[in-house]
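can u do me a favor
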């Protein structure tokens, strides 16, 4: 049987205040294994740890796990196990193993863990049929697909696979025994296994390949995840990741405290600087190099707010004009079809604050559209046509793309001046991440302008590899550095778009490199037929 063989993504609360709480509060706190409660340092570490806010205690353990120092589910209590783990960490660093962390030690832990957490970009993902959720790493380019029993998430090269599934009528004892037996027969060397009243865990290794299985009894069956990965190198760090996913499932099933991911997670960066793309553009802010083709949404700094274009930056992503009523305005952007049921993707900022939305396409007459969902964190929005759109073309999603690969963008820039039939540009993938190594984005050289926001970025085979989102503000960069950048533009990766669609249970096609690349004219026609002109009346 199968067991044997995204509530909307958001961001967690980790701000300068949280970092300061660790640096100041944990300066005397410590970590968890089997210590001696009579040790005078233990009482000091315990007292200071428990003086922290519960969510800060959880985040501290998550940082320890991400840095490779804490292989246990985070909880708000303090134990001898955490104390001993801290002592081992100090001993490895050649420092006095007191179990009481100093300011410099906390700083080092935060620094070593921040890059890992940033690359993972953890998101909450709900099971499609049960009231359970887990954390999954959107930053490793996971591609989601529905299974008969739930969801499967895979990395592009299948180095990581996680199945989050529910099996009705199953028994924990039998499932534990069957899983253990099948893994041993399959050649796995069992590293850990346990069977409790309400959950089971089995983990094993076969060469570089590892597997971690955890299932809980939810009253009518079993729900849990089966995770496999290869190697411990970045960005996966499978054992650390399995610990956090396991902790999230435990919290989901028991109601135990666990950090919320209602807002984008901000990890402290070097020097505690906020990357330029992590805050909405501010008026007259010379340090903000983004402009809308779109201004990217916060990667996680202040509470979520609508991205705003700087009044001194390049034009906003959506061309705006006033209608006859001076109190109202109309803005435009781009989008594209992802399902024959009439679903379309665009950017969240394109449809922000709309009283009404309309779309039209090459094979689609102008009609109203309903806003089904918005993901401000990743600047994505899901629309549904007001009438059946079976005739509209759709683009298959491809979850990975290579550095240097040829790509093309289609959209409706400057619709007040340029062709209303759309604009097609060619370029290449110039980087596999955005500003400050933001793993949500691709950097592309295909020219984009005001109005391209929400349009498709396709590969040479006609697959969707990104959603056009942002461009670098050349004027501000030139003013700050004296250098004028050319065609530095950004697109949200298709893996995040796939995750967003999966969270809304939208059925979409997937694709990959084919045998023959399309001629530019054929590629333009495919992108044109799938794209729509989006109008937002405010």
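np, heres the sequence
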């Amino acid at each position: 049987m199968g067991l044997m063989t995204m509530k909307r993504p958001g961001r967690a609360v980790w701000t300068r205040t949280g970092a300061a709480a660790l640096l100041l509060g944990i300066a005397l706190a410590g970590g968890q294994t089997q210590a001696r409660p009579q040790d005078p340092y233990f009482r000091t570490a315990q007292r200071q740890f428990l003086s922290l806010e519960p969510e800060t205690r959880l985040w501290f353990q998550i940082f320890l796990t991400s840095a490779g120092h804490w292989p246990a589910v985070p909880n708000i209590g303090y134990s001898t196990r955490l104390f001993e783990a801290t002592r081992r960490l100090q001993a490895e660093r050649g420092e006095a193993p007191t179990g009481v962390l100093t300011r410099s030690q906390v700083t080092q832990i935060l620094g070593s863990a921040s890059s890992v957490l940033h690359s993972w970009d953890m998101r909450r993902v709900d099971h499609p049929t049960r009231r359970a959720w887990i954390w999954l790493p959107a930053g490793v380019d996971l591609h989601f697909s529905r299974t008969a029993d739930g969801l499967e998430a895979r990395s592009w090269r299948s180095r990581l696979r996680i199945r989050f599934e529910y099996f009705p009528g199953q028994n924990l004892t039998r499932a534990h025994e069957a899983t253990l037996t099948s893994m041993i027969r399959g050649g796995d060397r069992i590293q850990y296994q346990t069977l409790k009243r309400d959950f089971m865990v089995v983990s094993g290794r076969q060469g570089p390949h590892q597997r971690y299985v955890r299932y809980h009894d939810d009253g009518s069956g079993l729900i849990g995840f089966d995770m496999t990965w290869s190697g411990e190198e970045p960005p996966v760090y499978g054992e650390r990741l399995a610990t956090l996913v396991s902790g999230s499932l435990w919290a989901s099933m028991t109601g135990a405290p666990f950090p919320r991911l209602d807002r984008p997670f901000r990890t402290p960066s070097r020097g505690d600087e906020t990357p330029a793309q992590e805050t909405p553009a501010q008026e007259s802010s010379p340090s903000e190099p983004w402009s809308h083709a779109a201004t990217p949404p916060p990667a996680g700094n202040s509470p979520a707010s609508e991205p705003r274009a700087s009044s001194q930056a390049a034009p906003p992503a959506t061309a705006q004009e006033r209608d006859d009523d001076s109190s109202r305005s109309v803005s435009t952007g781009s989008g594209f079809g992802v399902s024959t049921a009439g679903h379309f993707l665009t950017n969240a900022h394109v449809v922000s604050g709309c009283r009404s939305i309309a779309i039209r396409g090459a094979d689609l007459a102008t009609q109203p559209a309903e806003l089904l969902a918005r993901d401000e964190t990743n600047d994505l929005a899901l629309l549904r046509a007001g009438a059946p759109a079976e005739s509209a073309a759709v683009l298959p999603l491809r979850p990975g793309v290579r550095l240097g690969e040829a790509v093309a963008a289609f959209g409706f820039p400057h619709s007040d001046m340029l062709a209303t039939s759309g604009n097609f540009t060619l370029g290449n993938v110039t980087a596999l991440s955005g500003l400050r190594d933001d793993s949500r984005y691709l950097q592309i050289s295909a020219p984009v302008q005001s109005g391209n926001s929400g349009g498709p970025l396709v590969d040479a085979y006609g697959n969707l590899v990104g959603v056009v989102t942002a461009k670098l503000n050349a004027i501000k960069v030139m003013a700050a550095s004296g250098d004028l950048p050319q065609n530095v533009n950004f697109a949200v990766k298709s893996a995040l778009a796939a995750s967003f669609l999966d969270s809304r249970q939208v059925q979409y096609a997937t694709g990959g490199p084919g045998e023959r690349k399309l001629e530019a004219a054929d590629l333009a026609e495919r992108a044109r037929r799938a794209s729509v002109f989006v109008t937002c009346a405010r």
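The chain has three domains: 16-118, 121-254, 315-538. hope that helps!!
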